């Protein structure tokens, strides 16, 4: 196992500045996910770690060793690609053992390692098949098995589940996490899917336009996003936003919103009188119905749409402060139709505040 340290990484393609002074420390044995929208630079950063892209400036260290100028095969890494990258003319057995064959390992050793890894990935009955005879999920497991047999210091995953359907993604995602728990090898995983990031990662690196927005555990990013972008990107269904102005009267602070809605703050934080703010509230922190908590702010609403997920219902409503999405777990929410009147209660204790000008977190 090994740590991965990126220090002041810059990458340019001609006039395009793709990676901008990125510094990240990935701990030994950690499962780190690089996440961000398309064009954020996450795959380029992974390819820089792998040695498939040269840096314009900065250094890459793996296990404390500067590998910036080293060829990929000298970095002791293994990469699992989105496209599987299997040799079509080779069987599953031959694909998985290919790197060991190149290393001139004895055939008995290759067979023993391949058989062991194949059993752990439920591929032992498929060893004599060719890639064309496998499903997408089976091919991805073969690609993972081929990486595992090398026993590298670092595993790199480049959006390995994007070609799979939703049910299979969930299954293979669980297999990847199980593999990690068993081996505890450092993993760097790229995805644009924040749900994937939240369920797999020990820590997440959120990227936007080639810059690091925030690094933290899934809970840290969800509960305390550093800015509006992270708050909006992390979480499904997405967070609600509405605007307001801070009012400070002695030791009392409130946010005055549209149509006279006022939200008292229990933690003033860095808010000053007259400051324009963006309020964020996650759908699960809005109650549907008249059951209000002690510090909830009640608003009248009209239902625009509803989505039933079985365990809960997501309602999107028009309110005086703008559209709000709320989740409810009772059948009362499920029965509300388009145009119906509803009552929503905003849990003010769970309000996120961002400065309107900078979009940085305030509370």
Automatic annotation (TrEMBL):
Q: Spell out the InterPro entries in the cross-references.
A: AAA+_ATPase, ABC_transporter-like_ATP-bd, ABC_transporter-like_CS, ABC_transpr_MalK-like, ABC_transpr_MalK/UgpC-like, Mo/tungstate-bd_C_term_dom, NA-bd_OB-fold, OB_MalK-like
Top-rank lineage group of the source organism: Bacteria
The record, for PROSITE patterns, names: ABC_TRANSPORTER_1, ABC_TRANSPORTER_2
Gene3D superfamilies given for it? 2.40.50.100, Nucleic acid-binding proteins, P-loop containing nucleotide triphosphate hydrolases
Q: A cellular component term (GO) from this record?
A: ATP-binding cassette (ABC) transporter complex, substrate-binding subunit-containing
Q: What positions does the domain ABC transporter occupy?
A: 4-234
Q: Which SMART domains match?
A: AAA (SM00382)
Q: Which Gene Ontology terms cover its molecular function?
A: ABC-type transporter activity; ATP binding; ATP hydrolysis activity
Q: Does the keyword ATP-binding apply?
A: yes
Q: Which GO terms describe its biological process?
A: carbohydrate transport
Key words of the record: ATP-binding, Cell inner membrane, Cell membrane, Membrane, Nucleotide-binding, Transport
PANTHER family attached to this UniProt entry: BLL2173 PROTEIN (PTHR43875:SF10), MALTODEXTRIN IMPORT ATP-BINDING PROTEIN MSMX (PTHR43875)
Q: What is this protein called?
A: Sn-glycerol-3-phosphate import ATP-binding protein UgpC
Instruction: Record the organism.
Output: Ralstonia flatus
């Amino acid at each position: 196992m090994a740590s991965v340290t990126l220090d002041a990484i810059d990458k340019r393609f001609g006039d395009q500045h793709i990676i901008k002074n990125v510094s990240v420390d990935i701990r030994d044995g950690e499962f780190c996910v690089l996440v961000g929208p398309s064009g954020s630079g996450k795959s380029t950063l992974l390819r820089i770690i792998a040695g498939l892209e040269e840096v314009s400036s900065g250094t890459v260290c793996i296990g404390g060793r500067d590998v910036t100028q080293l060829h990929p095969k000298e970095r002791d890494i293994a990469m699992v690609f989105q496209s599987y990258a299997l040799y079509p003319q080779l069987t599953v057995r031959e694909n998985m053992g290919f790197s060991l064959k190149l290393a001139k390992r004895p055939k008995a050793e290759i067979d023993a390692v391949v058989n062991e890894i194949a059993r752990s990935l439920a591929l032992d009955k498929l060893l004599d098949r060719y890639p064309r005879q496998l499903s997408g999920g089976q091919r991805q497991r073969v690609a993972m098995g081929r990486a595992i047999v090398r026993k590298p210091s670092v595993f790199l995953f480049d959006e390995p589940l994007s070609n799979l359907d939703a049910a299979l993604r969930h299954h293979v995602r669980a297999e990847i996490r199980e593999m990690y728990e068993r081996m505890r090898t450092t993993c760097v995983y790229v995805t644009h899917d924040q749900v994937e990031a939240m369920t797999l990662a020990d820590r997440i690196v959120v990227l936007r336009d080639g810059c690091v927005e925030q690094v933290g555990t899934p809970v840290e990013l969800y509960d305390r996003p550093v800015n509006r972008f992270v708050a909006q990107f992390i979480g499904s269904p997405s967070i609600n936003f509405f605007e307001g102005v801070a009012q400070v009267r002695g030791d009392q602070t409130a946010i005055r919103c549209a149509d006279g809605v006022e939200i008292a703050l229990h933690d003033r934080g860095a808010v000053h009188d007259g400051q324009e703010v963006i309020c964020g509230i996650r759908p699960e922190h809005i109650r549907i119905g008249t059951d209000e908590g002690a510090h909830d702010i009640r608003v009248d609403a009209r239902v625009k749409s509803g989505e039933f997920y079985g365990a809960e219902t997501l309602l999107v409503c028009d309110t005086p402060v703008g559209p709000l999405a709320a989740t409810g777990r009772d059948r009362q929410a499920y029965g509300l139709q388009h145009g119906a009147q509803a009552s929503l209660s905003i849990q003010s204790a769970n309000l996120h505040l961002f400065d309107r000008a900078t979009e940085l977190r305030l509370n």
